[in-house]
Every structure is written in structure tokens, then in C-alpha cells.
């Protein structure tokens, strides 16, 4: 068996230990005589899996008691509609939500929210090709916004908030799809944190939302019941059938993370991995990363070859070394290395070694 170094932006690499455990438990989970996929979500076996996953995630992120963890479906894109449908009802209609436009994903959130409320783009780096995050002091927040939305890690553009912006009493909503659990965050500074699972958590199909209690119970009447946070919370994420297998794998990833020393230890590794790659990219004129240094993502590292006619040769050579999925998103071109929690530093080192060798050959 050859396991490759998979730099995909998502679905993405998962810890090998987790995959092995899932394989071992596939046919007979803990003597139940069935796989987790075949279990009733209301049976005691699955309930125990769900409860452990919820408890471990709460511990890993130090989620305060006045927040609910919801296991949903619909992905990050689903949340772009689910969030306004649940939050704008707290204000007289039509309500306004503030957005900071820092890349493709916050852009998608803006577009979707316009179906449910007025959108104020409080700040944008679009004209500068999203090469930085507009500093907080430049944001033009509205007076009575229902919420402020940010994407704390832009998966395509490679910018990441390195701090939590202050927005007063207005609930701060963060799309953390592509960096949740990669760094320590103070959950109490947010009203809502959401993310699709398929980068740092588990398989696609599971979406996690962490919602402060007082923001639950205001859904617009048009909100589908399966996405009304009140119904979901009251039913322990089992108002409808939850993505049971995704929750199970996520739970195994949470246990793995705890064995690694939790989020603080993982953050230190992520800092080291990102530094290894960015330092090399910065040291050469052959490759470049165009993002302002204080806004660079530790998870998604876009880079360009100076001579873009070498792109295909670069990707082919990488494949020969089992370094896969390095092609940049089609909207921005170039290359992108996603180095999530489950990417070991050896994988990043193998990539840097390849970058050097390729440069030697073609530089
Ligand atoms: N937000 C961010 C930051 C993402 O990276 C992605 C997926 N790449 C999404 C939202 C959309 O997620 P999904 O495809 O699960 O709806």
C-alpha cells in the first residue's frame, strides 16, 4: 500500500490512525455486530458515539456552557443561507448584516445572504486581489446589524485572520471551515462558528455549528425545520437523521487530536509546518506567495511559479514523488498546498525538497 502526501483543499487528508481504526471497526463496532453506518441514530450505541464526539469537541475548543454544538448537513454553503435565516429575525425587517469581503468564500456568503437581508460590505480587499485582510479600523460597520460575518480562513485565497476582531455587542459569525481546530480560538468572542467537516474534521457531509444560546430561537418562518437551530438543538442534532458516519469519524479525529496534545499542540505544529513552506517560498525568486505576511494562512498556501509555462511539468514531477493535489483553484491559478492538521511535517518537508529539486532543474 502506498499512502501519498495529499495536499487537497478538501475533502482532505485524514489521520492514518483514524482510517485504520475505522477499518478495523467497519464490520463490527465494539461487539454490536454491525457497522456504525448501519446503526439507528436513536440506539444506545450511536448515542454514545454522538455524545463522546460532542464532549470531545467541546473540550478541544473549550466551548463555554452557554453554547450549543450542532451537527448539521448542508456544508459551508448551506450555512450561508442557514445563518441569515436564523439570525436576521432578531431585528425588525428588513434587517442588515455586515460582511468583510476577504476572498472567494466570504464573497459567496455575501451573495447568498442577499436573499434574506440587506448586506453591508463593511470592508473589502477585492480590488487588491485579496492579498491582505482589511485592518479592523477601516471597517465600516452598520449601526444595528443583525450580525457581522467573516471567513476566518479563506481556503482559495490563502488569507487567515490572526486575531479575533472586536465588533461590540453584535454577534460575530465566523466561517471556520478550513481552519477549525488548527489554532486556539476564544469561542466566547463569537456568536456563531461554523464549518464543513471535510478539511480538519472528517468526511464531507457533516457540518458543525457552534451557536451561543441567545441566538437560538429566532428563525424566520421560511427557514426549513431541519436548519432551524432551535429544533436542531432541542433534539440533540437528531431532528432529522444526522450524518451518522461522519459524526463517528469526526469523533475519532477528536480523540486523535486529544492524543496529539489538543489544539495548542496542534497549533504549534501548524506554525512550524507553515514556516517551513513559506520560508522556502520567500527565499527564492523562482516561486512566490503574494499574500501579506501577517495575513498568510497556515492551512492553505497558494503559490506561483515565476515561469507559469512550467506548471504542468511541476505537477507531473510532484505526482511522481507522490505529492498530490497541488494545483491551485481554477479561479486563481498557480499552485496551492493545503497543510491541514493531519498533514505531517514530513509531508511539508517532502514538498520543500521537491520545490528545491525542481528549481535546480529548471531555474
Ligand atoms: N467556506 C469555506 C471557507 C470553504 O473552504 C468551503 C469549501 N471549500 C466552503 C465554505 C463550502 O463548503 P461546502 O462545499 O461544504 O458547502
Automatic annotation (TrEMBL):
Positions bound to pyridoxal 5'-phosphate: 105, 155, 175, 198, 240-241
Biological processes, Gene Ontology terms: L-serine biosynthetic process; pyridoxine biosynthetic process
Top-rank EC class of the record's enzyme: transferase
Modified residues (N6-(pyridoxal phosphate)lysine): 199
Location, primary (coarse class): cytoplasm
UniProt KW Cell division keyword: no
Residue ranges occupied by any Aminotransferase class V domain in the UniProt entry: 4-351
Pathway(s): Amino-acid biosynthesis; L-serine biosynthesis; L-serine from 3-phospho-D-glycerate: step 2/3; Cofactor biosynthesis; pyridoxine 5'-phosphate biosynthesis; pyridoxine 5'-phosphate from D-erythrose 4-phosphate: step 3/5
Subcellular location: Cytoplasm
GO molecular function: O-phospho-L-serine:2-oxoglutarate aminotransferase activity; pyridoxal phosphate binding
Catalytic activity: 4-(phosphooxy)-L-threonine + 2-oxoglutarate = (R)-3-hydroxy-2-oxo-4-phosphooxybutanoate + L-glutamate; O-phospho-L-serine + 2-oxoglutarate = 3-phosphooxypyruvate + L-glutamate
Transmembrane segments: none
Key words, A-Z: Amino-acid biosynthesis, Aminotransferase, Cytoplasm, Pyridoxal phosphate, Pyridoxine biosynthesis, Serine biosynthesis, Transferase
Sites where the protein binds L-glutamate: 42
Enzyme Commission (EC) number: 2.6.1.52
Quaternary state and interactors: Homodimer.
Task of the protein: Catalyzes the reversible conversion of 3-phosphohydroxypyruvate to phosphoserine and of 3-hydroxy-2-oxo-4-phosphonooxybutanoate to phosphohydroxythreonine.
Descriptive protein name: Phosphoserine aminotransferase
UniProt organism field: Noviherbaspirillum denitrificans
Gene field: serC
